């Protein structure tokens, strides 16, 4: 095992320990929070080492970069998650090459993903990205429009609406982090009454995963604390 392999494996073990400790601290059932490795700007070899260390879910922000890595990793069975902004001209490739999309925030994109999902593949798992802080600079559907969008997306035959995702305003204060995640958790609980298959809360990154787990996160998206600073 080379130095890179050792470092990535050690980092993944540390992150898993943080997840387990947070699950225990916040009275979550053990092993209910999944770990996604976010590999934007990382090499296919680094992704391969993360998978060798037990990672089963890979998150990518940039389409062409992700497609290039997928070509180098065809021998590995892993779930690919698209978590970046989606342009209309990228939906076909996303629909064809990913298992999950976490960043759907408007009906136009959902319709294109639905129509372009190959018939031989299972429905595309989708999370709606929610702008919980009403920041103009942030992507995401507003809380006010969430229920309407969810109802429309939930009716599409080639998409499986699984949950919600957010990227809250950055803060180094745990109480502020948790308050931001609580907004999405509340919206999720409310939406579950009408969308029966919702089971995924995609929230929490390297700096705020504990706060996200406290508020019900089911998958944390970790890049820096696995691969190191970019």
From TrEMBL:
Organism listed in the record: marine gamma proteobacterium HTCC2143
UniProt xrefs under NCBIfam families: YggS family pyridoxal phosphate-dependent enzyme
Superkingdom in the source lineage: Bacteria
Protein name: Pyridoxal phosphate homeostasis protein
Function comment: Pyridoxal 5'-phosphate (PLP)-binding protein, which is involved in PLP homeostasis.
TM stretches of this protein: none
Requisite cofactors: pyridoxal 5'-phosphate
Modification N6-(pyridoxal phosphate)lysine occurs at: 40
GO molecular function: pyridoxal phosphate binding
Annotated Alanine racemase N-terminal domain residues: 11-229
């Amino acid at each position: 095992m080379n130095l890179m392999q050792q470092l990535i494996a050690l980092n993944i073990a540390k992150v898993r320990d943080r997840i387990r400790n947070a699950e225990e601290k916040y009275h979550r059932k053990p092993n209910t929070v999944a770990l996604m490795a976010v590999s934007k700007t990382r090499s296919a070899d680094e992704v391969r080492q993360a998978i060798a260390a037990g990672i089963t879910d890979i998150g990518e922000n940039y389409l062409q970069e992700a497609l290039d890595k997928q070509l180098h990793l065809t021998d590995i069975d892993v779930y690919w998650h698209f978590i970046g902004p989606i342009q209309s001209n990228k939906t076909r490739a996303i629909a064809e090459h990913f298992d999950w999309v976490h960043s759907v925030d408007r009906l136009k994109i959902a319709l294109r993903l639905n129509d372009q999902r190959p018939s031989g593949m299972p429905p595309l798992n989708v999370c709606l990205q929610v702008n919980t802080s009403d920041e103009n600079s942030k992507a995401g559907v507003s809380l006010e429009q969430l229920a309407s969008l969810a109802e429309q997306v939930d009716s599409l035959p080639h998409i499986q609406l699984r949950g919600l995702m957010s990227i809250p305003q950055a803060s180094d204060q745990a109480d502020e982090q948790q308050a931001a995640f609580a907004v999405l958790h509340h919206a999720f609980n409310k939406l579950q009454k009408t969308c029966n298959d919702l089971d995924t809360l995609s929230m929490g990154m390297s700096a705020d995963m504990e706060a996200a787990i406290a508020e019900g996160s089911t998958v944390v998206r970790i890049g820096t604390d696995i691969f190191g600073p970019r």
